[in-house]
Amino acid sequence: MEKQYHIDFDDSHGALYALLPGDPGRVEKIASFLDNPRFFHQNREYTTWLGEISGKTVMVISTGMGGPSTAIAVEELFKTGVRNFIRIGTCGGMALPVIGGDVVIATGSIRMEGTTKEYVPIEFPAVANLDITNALVEAAKKLGQKWHAGVVQCKDSFYGQHSPEKMPAGYELMNKWEAWIKAGTLASEMESSTLYIVSQILGARAGCVLNVVWNQEREKAGMSNPHCHDTENAIKTAVEAIRILIERE
Fold this sequence. Notes:
The chain has a 5-stranded mixed beta barrel with strand order 5-9-8-6-10. Helix 2 (67-79) packs parallel to helix 6 (192-202) and helix 3 crosses helix 8 (232-248). The protein contains 8 helices and 10 strands. Strand 2 and strand 3 (46-53) form a beta hairpin. The protein is an alpha/beta fold. The mean pLDDT is 97.
């Protein structure tokens, strides 16, 4: 087949599973948790390494930040044969029990981004694949992680979340933020709903595991609020989940 326009490679990689960080700078670190890690390709925001888990080829490829570049990655990777996607990302906690350094497994995502509206009407939910989600939960338990599973918010604007009062639409942003918290939303990030909707439409499987960096709601409440930028627990959870899936299938 011809090389895909944005990721700039074809189906010769042979990977059915892909781990998707947003940041190109995290790809090599994630690949180091695989057997036989090796650089594969780089184009635009898409840095790609390959490795193995239980003898099967697994890809690690960055998606960049936000929905549009994530959708492009999933579309083109699917064309090259990838059928299983796990996002490894970071998030900010929203529910008070969610603390920096915890792991959040996103079972569903609030579609506060614009990309998926060009795929399917907003009433259609963005939900994770059950097999992958169950494998992530099993992996987190096996590894002794402090984990949470539930709904996250997916947004387009980082500063719309952190400085809503500066935005002309701030009244709407702040009202919805309070609604998400009252509904029990665990955390906020920027790619999960796009991953879930595009995968659903293509017929692929997708899940998402996130490292909690901090929790602004705990900060507001005067509670302890540790910061954690190390994604190792989320990485280990995703890798173990793929191992579980491979060994079962």
